[in-house]
Amino acid sequence: MRKNGTACGQVLFSGLVLFALAVFPGYAKANREQAPDPGPSADVVVWTYDSFNSEWGPGPEAAKRFLAETGITIKWVSHGDAGELVSRLLLEGSNAGADVILGLDQNLAERALASGLLEAYKPKGADALFQDLVFDKTYRLIPLDYSYFAIVYDAQRIPQPPQSLEDLTAEAYRKQLILMDPRTSSPGLGFLAWTMDVYGGDWKAYWRRLGPSILTIADGWSAGYGLFTAGEAPMVLSYTTSPGVHLEYEGTERYQAALFAEGHPIQIEVAGLLAGGKNKENARKFLDFMVSPSFQDIIPLTNWMYPVIGIPLPESFRINPKSDKTRYPGIPTDRDLTEWAELMAQIQGR
Q1: For FRET with 303, which of 15, 24, 220, 274 sits at 20 to 30 Å CA-CA?
Q2: Max Cα-Cα span within the chain
Q3: CATH number of 43-146+268-313, picked from 3.10.20.310, 3.40.50.10840, 2.130.10.10, 3.40.190.10
Q4: Average pLDDT in the 244-254 region?
Q5: H helices of the chain, where?
Q6: Mean pLDDT across the stretch 51-66?
Q7: pLDDT tens-digit profile of 67-78?
């Protein structure tokens, strides 16, 4: 907390310090030896992606509740999309200055786990988590929410939505689709993994067929979905839970998620304790809070994902479709990402 003082008071204090140093040479040394260790601050520094800490995201309300329950202030630090978040962590390493990283998913988990920057911690209340979401049994990464990737469309502009990945390549959808870059966006990475899972070794041929349907490839979900809601294109890569946003806040069922015959990939978002964090006790308390009902009931109407424990869902979630087939694609490699980028350069250069 900042303390305010008058200029006169500051001058007087400075003068007393100088007098003490001149008259009592041992003052400074004794003061250093006797001063108590301030220890960790009453803060916890959490790195996340932009939309999580936006004014409409979970961050502000979560910080308010956490402060009320613990007296600890959350200092959110936003780093673009989840792909940018993990890249920044790997770049800065133990000098990141964060206590918790929040918002990676299972497609980015391998990079984070392999870095050695995360420390195992099983939060209090973790036994209440849906156990099929706990893909890291060491609890270096802990589930915070989940949903399923899907193509969301404007039903007023697309009366006959696609029913499969292959349908997206139809001439009727030329320049109608907004996607995200898999190198910087977790939904973008999830979509690439989805196509590789369905088409196997023929995934590049699929992307060549898909190319004419793509209007643009955004760096992150926020930018891409913003273009969609601005009317730039009638289809966008998002989540099966996205239509509920429009029903809840706009009272419209105009925006729908297309269910595909081949099923939909799950996205499990996670958080982890950083081994190099300066406020570990506070960070552990935050992770305890994250898996509690107090945090989890914020998620549906702010992050528009499903909670990872059993709590009631808002009425607006009735519009969000559920596929009868959940896919668990493999994780694209760095080589896959390079080949995708080269392929897109060819497609967009036509």
Answers
A1: 274
A2: 87
A3: 3.40.190.10
A4: 96
A5: 7-23, 27-34, 59-70, 82-92, 106-114, 186-199, 203-210, 221-229, 243-250, 280-290, 293-296, 334-348
A6: 94
A7: 999 999 999 999
